[in-house]
Amino acid sequence: QYQGLAGRSTNEVLQLYSAHGQQQKLQRSSVVIQLHGTIKKRLKQDVKSLRSFALQLSKDFQHQSKTYLYQVLTAVQGIQLQNEAMQMFQLKAFDLEQSLQEVSERYEKEKQKRRALHNSLVELRGNIRVHCRIRPLLPFDTAAGHSISQDRQRNFSERVAYAADDETVLVKCSRPGHASINKTFQFERVYSASESQDTVFEDVAPLLTSLLDGYNVCIMAYGQTGSGKTYTMLGPQSENFAFSMEDESELGIIPRATQEVFRLISEKPPGSYWVEVSVVEVYNNEIFDLLAKDSCGKVFGVKRDVVTTREGKRDVPLLTHETVENASEFLHLVNLGLQLRVRHPTLVHAHSSRSHLVVTLTITTIVSGDNFGTSWEDEQSSQRLNKDVSCTFPQKMRENKSASSSRASSPAQHEATEKLKQVKTRLQLVDLAGSECVGMSGVTGAALRETSFINRSLSALADVLGAIAEQRSHVPYRNSKLTHLLQDSIGGDAKLLVMLCISPGQKYLTESMQSLGFGARARQVQRGQVKKKNFPVQSKAK
Ligand code: ADP
Ligand code: MG
């Protein structure tokens, strides 16, 4: 084509060339137009699908957000409902808390009322109360034994006796291979391991008011060795068995009771009461006077005997009674007695828990025809005080202290010289021998004798309480020196408090159950109503 053109003129060539260029341009632009159309079409399609996609997407989004919104709304509503419910619950809880508080307050009041009623009931029935004290687990409970394996050791020192509440003892009884059974025992008062000497004494104190009202009172601690009898009755002791008044908060019932007696006496007209003390030990069914002095003034244990006087009262002829003016004089005397208890050759026994210790406070009141009406404001107590009027009493004796101390206490000795009446009431505080049933096998000689005497005297005590419970006409007080000695303060209208002492460990389970059984039986004791005494003519002069 270009060769053909060679001959043509440049003009023609140029024309052709431009025509060709235009043609090409035309061709190119038609392609472009075509392409453009296609692209446009495609683009339109794309835009369309994009739009529908976007539409779909926004629809989806709207739908989703609606669902989410709905969910959020329901959740918010739920939370609101929950909040309302929570508020309701809070209100309800508050109401319940308030009513619980009211109920507990009412319960406390009712309990106090019930206690007061119970006390008057006990008073009417003759007054045996049984309290139970569970001592804490102590280091010696967990001390490793020689022959026992570690496992058994751990088992043994496990706590099984608890105070479920202030009237219930709960004991977990378990035997190997058996499910454990819980046993409960009810008493007038149960002290947990954390309760102090103070708390224990609070419940004892009212009995001392009764003492000055003219009732004989006996407080005894019963339990196996190591269960806390001496701690409860006297307080923690040093090695020589002495106890001191240094730490007042640790003092036991005996020193506190004496303080209380002197406090109560200080509220009475001066000189109208005085207090004598005797300390005896009952060992192998013999009574030993721990305050008796020989001619040189040295104390030594002397055997005494208990008799029943013509007036039907118990008496220990020649027993030493020391007059004391205050609690510290008393403690001094008791300490002397306690030290003798360990020292004296006739009283040799390995452990204080092998004998019964009986500390007696005899409170003598002088009642004369003249001062009677003024001395005793409370008619009831004056009536009671007159119940025990045993003899008339020479005034000189009251003035002469030395005559009244270390005297023989037979009331029959006093002759009538003036119209003065002597009224005696007795407070007997007893730390009993350990109640553990020591096996007889392998035990010989002195130890066997000792063990069988303890077993006999404690079962005599159980028999006496049993006979009283069944209101039998014959109560075997004389089956042992212990019960004979205590007859006036556990029989008749006297008030007896048995303080059961319990060791909490598994190791002591059998003994604890035995003690609780003893307490439960003693608790059933219901004596006849307190007999109304005939009052002397003077009482009516009031
Ligand atoms: P028991 O006279 O019955 O043989 P103890 O009174 O001698 O027993 O008590 C044995 C040990 O346990 C003593 O060391 C005593 O101080 C301690 N103990 C007893 N009861 C308690 C108690 N409630 N709190 C603290 N220690 C106690
Ligand atoms: Mg003891």
TrEMBL record:
Pfam families reported for this sequence: Kinesin
Record-annotated Kinesin motor domain positions: 127-525
Metal-binding recorded as keyword: no
Keywords: ATP-binding, Coiled coil, Cytoplasm, Cytoskeleton, Motor protein, Nucleotide-binding
Binding site for ATP: G223, Q224, T225, G226, S227, G228, K229, T230
GO CC terms, sorted: microtubule cytoskeleton
Composition bias, Low complexity: 402-412
Cell location: Cytoplasm, Cytoskeleton
A GO biological-process term: microtubule-based movement
SUPFAM superfamilies listed in its UniProt record: P-loop containing nucleoside triphosphate hydrolases
InterPro entries: Kinesin-like_fam (IPR027640), Kinesin_motor_dom (IPR001752), Kinesin_motor_dom_sf (IPR036961), P-loop_NTPase (IPR027417)
Coiled-coil zones: 93-127
Ranges where the record places region Disordered: 396-420
Membership in a protein family: Belongs to the TRAFAC class myosin-kinesin ATPase superfamily. Kinesin family.
Record-given protein name: Kinesin-like KIF25
